[in-house]
Amino acid sequence: MIVNIEGKFINEERNKTRASIEWRHHSDALDTFFVNLNDSPSFTYITAGKYRYMEFKEGKVKRQLGLHHLRDNIGKTPLKLDDLELLANGYFKCPDTTKQEPNVNVLSTAASNTWWSIVVDSLPNPEKMVMRGATKKPRYFSLANWKSYAGELLPTLASVSSEDYSGSLWIRSAYPSQALETDPLQKPIKPKILLPVPKLFGKIAMEGERKIPLILKLNKQLLSE
Asked: Which residues have a Cβ under 8 Å from the Cβ of 143 and sit 6 or more positions away?
């Protein structure tokens, strides 16, 4: 799937910030996130689970990342690189089957450096969600308006808040990866206008001898005289 996500936030510094993220998700290949920010350098985040790195357009810089880097914020937004990692790879442990009544609504993350658990009010389409982790400051989500995109149910709108920040996320578009070139909300690219070929050079005949423009014939005649 290709999912285009927009986000607006009031960050911890009480400043307005926004992000635009194109998420290209593959079940058996690399996941790529194209992250565009209004107040920080934009970048591409690429992850395959065991390794991950960022690419910056300016200077063609690549930065390899370890797990501890996942605690870093995405620009000046309250989002973390770990959020992208969780979306791409779904590092969640199975419910504890040793308990008589395991709580299936509590999801534990297996390889996250920021979030330890995700608790939802219901499955498979929750409306409320709480994330808790290393920062000891829970993050609250309110999910609304679930819709089917090419057979996949996704919430089209989500509000996010914590003690220090708030904001909203929404899906601008989502479609199968086969339709990558047909984003319905992208502006059409104008075709390049080819300038006409000067008549001086004439046309090349499909059969027979090459036609010589009249001006070249005159020059040839003058030279012979």
From this structure: 125, 126, 127, 128, 129, 155, 157, 158
